[in-house]
Each structure stands twice: as structure tokens, then as C-alpha cells.
Amino acid sequence: MSFASPIFLWYFMPALLVVVWLTPRSARNLVVALFSLLFYVWGAGTFVFLLLACIAVNYAAGRLVEPGRGGASERSRKLWLAATASFDVGILAIWKYGTFAQQQFHALVHDFGGSTGSVLRIALPIGISFFTFHHLSYVIDVYRGVRPAQRHPVAFVTYIAMFPQLIAGPIVRYHEIADQLPERRPDRLGDFAAGFPRFAHGLAKKVIVADSIGPIADSIFALSSNQLTTPAAWLGALAYALQIYFDFSGYSDMAIGLGRMLGFRLPENFARPYSAVSITDFWRRWHMSLSRWFRDYLYIPLGGNRGSAGRTYFNLYLVFALVGFWHGANWTFLIWGLYHGSWLVLERVTGYRSWADERLRVLRRLFTYFVVVVGWVFFRAPNLHAAGSMLQAMFVPRFGPLPDTVTAAANTQRTLTFALALLVVLIPGRFVLGRFLEASTSRIGSLARVGVTAVAAPYAAVLVAAGTFSPFLYFRF
């Protein structure tokens, strides 16, 4: 069930909010947990049992890894932590990477002249990458003593299965939300007033912008290598860069707004990433909850930048190889992660990452955007051969008319939306509308809330009613 679907907008969300408002505060977590499980069943069916099994294992593990638990030794706690983390990663590996591993094995056998049976296709449970990271965050935070183990099963289910962030984030580390799980919520109307404009803002970004630009990118990435021209390739790369930003940040805005309406403050996930002046800066702004997760639970435990320069570079490469592969079981994602890791290492080697933000700001913003757009080709292309063809067309001049499929996709309305979206991402980087929407004392915030709620949201709702919405891009990860 998509947030941008009629069934969600006109039935599921209103029903949930009415029930939450009518029930006592002590029942909030139970209501959110039940509706979240219903939401997951709607989209994933029987995979809800896999989710519940993972919840049960990690809930029990939290009590076993907690410091001071009945005099348990440090060795015992470490063993339980390792076992639980292995279970969580194993579940993710089987369901997300099992088919890919089989394909690579079969290809290797065939290269040596052997033969194998058919590949067993394993369906991917939606949201598995996100709820796995939530489980790992929980057991690690409890093991470290950052927060105590959760004693209330319903509260734990609420944290893991909370539907706004279950399918595509933000990734909420346990210590960020543990203090919000006790059922205290004094201002339901205030939460709604702050959350709904944020939700409407995300809906508009998704339906009005991302879904308009998406067909342009899709039509170009579907071209064969001999149809690609340099203008078409750059148009496709730029269109996808805009589509994925407005799609994913739109989802995050909707999730944050929904969470706020339910009384939860979810972490920010975007801060105008295309305003970055370096790739280091980009990863402080893009999918921030993922960056923070890898920083806290992998990069720093590996030693971060506290060791030698070589060790730091190794840590960065390893982390970004995993960041890439986390997004999907395809070599293109691994290359995309290593591509970004290489730029991060280069910025450290040259000292570029330490430059003051205002130094050559405009040129550095444009160069960083160029680097990011080129990287998106690996992320979007179905395979390395297609990515290579796209990049060749981008950098080896080849001209000609746009194919009919592209001109049909790039109609007047979509081209205008593309141009306006490009203008939006290139304006000065300090203007973050999501923050203004929640700034109750700001005149700009008040005007933005009125504009989004009175104009953008109704128009987006009309588009949804007309059936022009599409699934969120990050649902596949």
C-alpha cells in the first residue's frame, strides 16, 4: 500500500488517525502496532510472519545482551550479540541476496563448461533492509548500555513495525526513539498541525514532481546503445537524479509527517543534498539516517579515522561497498558504492574535504552535482553493460534526433516540471522547506504551510485520484 494511493489517503490514514485520537493515550502504541502490521500484510502478505519472527528473536535478545542482566558475563553478552546479529544479517542475506548468489554461482559453473539446474527465485520481502537495520540498532544500543532493553512487547513492535518508516525509512536508531515509546503525548492537535503539512509537502514532491519526471528517465534508460545520443544520455541522467531525489525525499517527508501526527519525531533524512560542495558534504545531506547508521555501527567500530591513513581509506571503501550492496543485489550498486567511496578517499588525500564551505562555493556545488549525476547512472542502469553504454554516450560526443519514445515521454508538462525541479535544486542551499514547515513561529513557515496545504496537496490528490502515481523507488530496496 503506497502512501500516494487512494486506499491509503482516503481510508487507511484517516481511519488510523481517528482511532488514535479517540482511544486513550495508553493505547497509542497498540493502535499503531496493529495498524502497522495490517499495513505490512496488505503489501507483503505472509511475509508478516518473517517480520514477527525477527521481532520475537530480537526482543528476546535485548534482554540477553543488556549490561548487568543477572550477573551475565561480558563474554556471554558478546556471544548473544554475535548470534543475534548473525541471525539478522543471515535473514537479510538469504532473502535479498540468495537469488543473486545463485546466479553468480551458475554463471561461474557455465564459464567452466559445467551445467546446473535452474535458479531458485526468492521473493524479496518489502522493507527487509530497513527492519533489519532497526533490529541491529536495537541489540547494539542495548548491548552498549546506551538504552535499556525494551520491557514492553507492544512498544517494541511499534518501534520495529511502525509503518511510516518500515518500508523505506528513515532508518531510526533505537536510541533516537526509545524515549518516545512511553505513551506520553500532550498535544494531539499540535502534532497534527505540524505533521500534516509535512506529509502534504512530501506527497506533492512525489506525485507532482517525481512521477512527472520519471517517464523521461525511464524512456532514455530503456534505449539501446545505438539509439543513445549525448544529449539524450545527459537528459536521462539529469532526469533520474531529480526523480530519485524528489521521490525519496518526498517519501521521507511523508514518513516524518505521519510519524509526527502519531506523536513521534522521526529523524530528518535529507538536507538539500544537491547543494553539497563535496561528496563528503553530500553524504552529510543525502539519506542521512543511512549515513549515521553506518557511521555508528560499522565505520567507528572499525576504527574510523583514528588509525593510519591507509586504515581510514580501507574503512571508507568497505563501508561504501556495503552501502552500495545494501541497496540491492546487483554489481551496479556495488560499483556505485565504490565510486562514492573513491571520491571520499580522494577528498581526504587532497585535503579538499577540509576546504571552507564558502570557498569557490558555486563551482564546487556544480562539480559535486556533476559527480553525483554520473554516479546515478550506475544506480539506475539494470546492469553494468547498460551503465557503460550510457556513460559512453555521455562522454563520447554523439548527436542526432531524440527517439520518438523520448519525445513522447518529454511532453510539455513534464519538460516544464523537469526545468522547474532543476531550478529548485540549484537555488541557494540553506532553504530547506521541510524545516520551515515545522517552524511555527516563522512567517515563512506559516506561508509555506498554507501554500502546501491549500494548493499543492489538493492538486496532488487530484493526480492520485486520476491514477497517475507510481510506487516509491526505494520500495525495491
Report how far apart the termini are: 16 Å
Give the proportion of residues in helices: 55-70%
Tell the overall outline: globular
Structural class: mainly alpha
Total domains, how many? 2
Low-confidence stretches: none
* β-sheet strand percentage: under 5%
Give Rg in angstroms: 23 Å
Number of strands: 0
Mean pLDDT: 88
Order of helices and strands: HHHHHHHHHHHHHHHHHHHH
Q: Count up the helices.
A: 20
Quaternary structure of the protein: single chain
User: Largest sheet, if any?
Assistant: none
Highlighted features:
single chain; 477 residues; mainly alpha; 2 domains; 0% strand; globular
Question: What does this 3D model show about the protein?
Answer:
This protein has 20 helices and no strands. With 477 residues, the chain is an all-alpha fold. Helix content is 68%, strand content 0%. The mean pLDDT is 88. It folds into 2 domains: 160 residues, no CATH class; 209 residues, no CATH class.
